[in-house]
Specification:
Layout lengths: L2 H28 L4 E3 L5 E3 H17 L4 E4 L11 E9 L1 H5 L6 E8 L2 E9 L4 E6 L4 E5 L5 E2 L12 E3 L4 H5 L3 H10 L2 E3 L3 H9 L5 E4 L4 H4 L2 H7 L3 E3 L12 E4 L4 H9 L9
Parallel strand pairs: 3-4, 10-11, 10-12
Antiparallel strand pairs: 1-2, 4-5, 5-6, 6-7, 7-8, 8-9, 12-14, 13-14
């Protein structure tokens, strides 16, 4: 992989994230979408499917040899060593209830290593991106991009701790992990899904913990958080997007967070 290959893909990822985000925002603002329940009881809308089709079509046109994995349609294998991992609406529960904290996620792997991530929050008009071994950037509206950096808070007692859904801790037998983190943190909020991770990457929150995640929820996050000076790992501290769980920190709080979680691991997520 050379710098040009990654730069071309970043430019494309930013453009198509905004295009897909604009499509979801039309649905969101009008409220004219159909909601269905998938086999795992999670919601899906025609906005999810339409936005993912847009992402897939754009990626196939620009990089036909790259693989694509998404939440709503079967994987398309590739031959280039690159695999895109996309989530057209991360935070569908927020989306269908009129909460603007949902996002479009685009991640990129190169031979199994996560190398690029984009988070676009259409209703907030915020975009965050990062490259493995490079920098992370944050842009709001028409403002010039600025570096994204994690906070410097050094103890959980000073921190803002976020999660997506409190009930998910109990689903894996780790309810005590949530209660212990809540007790340790200064402020706890369920500013969830990719919005919570964007808060950590920009220093507005300090820790984000999810007991249950899919790879399309995680793929964009690791490169961004690491480029912003933070960490994204599983509950055992391993830097991976494939564990079915996630912990993001500003780096300074990683050891303290992992120490608490280690006492309440519960059952690992199903593969």
């Amino acid at each position: 992989m050379n710098a040009g290959e990654l730069a071309d893909r970043l430019e494309t990822a930013l453009a198509i994230a905004r295009r897909a985000g604009a499509l979801t925002l039309e649905y969101f603002n009008r409220g004219n979408y159909a909601v269905e329940r998938k086999g795992d009881a999670t919601p899906v809308t025609d906005a999810d499917r339409g936005a993912e089709q847009l992402l897939r079509a754009d990626l196939a046109a620009r990089f036909p040899d790259d693989g694509v994995l998404g939440e709503e349609f079967p994987e398309r294998p590739g031959s280039s060593g690159f695999r895109w991992i996309v989530d057209p609406i991360d935070g569908t529960k927020s989306f269908i209830t009129g909460v603007p904290l949902y996002g479009t996620l685009i991640g990129l792997e190169h031979h199994g290593r996560s190398v690029l991530g984009v988070i676009h929050l259409p209703a907030l008009d915020e975009t965050l991106w990062g490259l493995a071994g490079g920098d992370a950037w944050f842009a709001r509206g028409a403002d010039a991009p600025r570096p994204a950096r994690v906070s410097t808070r050094a103890t959980l007692a000073e921190s803002v701790f976020c999660t997506s859904e409190v009930a998910s801790f109990a689903k894996r037998g780790s309810a005590d992990a949530y209660h212990a983190l809540e007790a340790a943190a200064r402020i706890t909020r369920t500013w969830g899904d990719c919005y919570g991770y964007s808060l950590v990457a920009t220093g507005r929150a300090d820790v984000m913990v999810d007991p249950l995640m899919s790879v399309w929820d995680a793929a964009a996050l690791q490169p961004i958080l690491e480029a912003a000076g933070g960490t994204f790992t599983d509950w055992r501290g391993r830097p991976t997007i494939h564990a079915g769980e996630g912990i993001a920190t500003n780096g300074l709080l990683q050891a303290e967070t992992l120490q608490i979680v280690a006492q309440h691991l519960g059952a690992p997520p199903a593969p």
